[in-house]
């Protein structure tokens, strides 16, 4: 895998150089998303691995179908840099594309924020969100470690070895989905923008089984309006 941190730094430099207004959907995809996909191990020159403008069931085209052994395994829908990912139409579009094609995973992104959805969860559309990753959190440690660890869930190797799926079991099993994770960050991080991520540092709660128990205990309360804005630091779980 190429240097993911370096790819993220390059993306942020390009945004700073050209300005957000320069990045419509097409420019965002080619200039900002593709370097990240390449760093995650996806071969952009191999149509059996990365299929651009993939035609789905209703004839509509989505930005990227990422494939293993020629089979679509992850859909990526790209929006312009200045577009908000909170629009319910964007969420429904992205999840429905994947769900109707029998694809388990999909990503909605504007290059600054990546939202990973698991399409087959029997919950409301917005609650299919597994994790939100804001690449602006790579400018300081330990947020950089957290953000890169989360983003690596989208790597070709993570999809191939089942790491993304096994990690999702921690989030969606035992009533964790839709529950607040606020008990894991006693000092709130200042907002870095309209889509600031929250980070769960599993280094403070130990191994995978211990982490799951801690998450379950914390998340036993009622869901909150912020339930779709979760980000997990899985730097220990993902090793």
Explained architecture:
The protein has a six-stranded mixed sheet with strand order 1-2-3-4-5-6, with helices on both faces. It has helices at residues 4-18, 25-39, 88-100, 143-151, 156-161, 163-172, 208-218; strands at residues 50-55, 61-68, 71-78, 105-109, 113-118, 129-134. The chain has seven helices and six strands. Strand 1 (50-55) and strand 2 form a beta hairpin. With 239 residues, the protein is an alpha+beta fold. The chain is globular, with a radius of gyration of 17 Å. Helix 1 packs antiparallel against helix 2 (25-39). The model is unreliable at 174-239 (pLDDT under 50). The chain has a domain at 4-156: tt1808, chain A (Alpha-Beta Complex), CATH 3.90.1570.
Summarize the structure.
With 239 residues, the chain is an alpha+beta fold.
Helicity range of the residues?
25-40%
Q: Which structural category do the helix and sheet elements fall into?
A: alpha+beta
Stated plainly, the CATH topology of the domain at 4-156 is called tt1808, chain A
**Poorly predicted regions:** 174-239
CATH architecture of the domain at 4-156: Alpha-Beta Complex
Give a quick account of the main beta sheet: strands, pairing sense, barrel closure: 6 strands, mixed
Over the alpha carbons, how many angstroms does the gyration radius reach?
17 Å
Distance between the termini: 15 Å
Spatial order of the strands forming the largest sheet: 1-2-3-4-5-6
The share of residues in extended strands comes to: 15-25%
Round the mean pLDDT to the nearest integer and report it.
78
Order of helices and strands: HHEEEHEEEHHHH
The CATH C-level class name of the domain at 4-156: Alpha Beta
Number of strands: 6
Task: Figure out the total of helices.
Answer: 7
Shape from CA axes?
A: globular
């Amino acid at each position: 895998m190429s240097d993911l941190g370096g790819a993220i730094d390059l993306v942020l430099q390009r945004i700073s150089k050209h300005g957000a207004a320069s990045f419509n959907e097409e420019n965002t995809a080619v200039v900002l998303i593709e370097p990240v996909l390449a760093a995650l191990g996806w071969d952009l020159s191999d149509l059996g691995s990365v299929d651009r403008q993939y035609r789905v069931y209703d004839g509509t085209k989505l930005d990227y179908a990422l494939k293993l052994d020629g089979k679509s395994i992850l859909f990526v829908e790209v929006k312009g840099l200045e577009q908000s990912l909170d629009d319910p139409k964007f969420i429904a579009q992205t999840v429905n594309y994947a769900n109707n094609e029998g694809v388990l995973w999909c990503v909605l992104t504007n290059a600054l924020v990546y939202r990973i959805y698991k399409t087959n969860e029997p919950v409301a559309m917005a609650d299919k969100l597994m994790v939100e990753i804001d690449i602006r959190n790579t400018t300081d440690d330990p947020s950089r470690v957290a953000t890169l660890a989360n983003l690596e869930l989208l790597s070709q190797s993570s999809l191939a070895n089942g790491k993304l799926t096994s990690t999702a079991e921690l989030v969606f099993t035992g009533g964790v989905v839709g529950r607040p994770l606020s008990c894991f960050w006693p000092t709130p991080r200042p907002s870095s923008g309209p889509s600031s991520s929250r980070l769960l540092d599993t280094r403070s709660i130990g191994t995978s089984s211990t982490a799951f128990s801690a998450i379950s205990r914390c998340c036993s309360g009622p869901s909150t309006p912020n339930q779709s804005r979760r980000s997990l630091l899985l730097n220990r779980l993902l090793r």
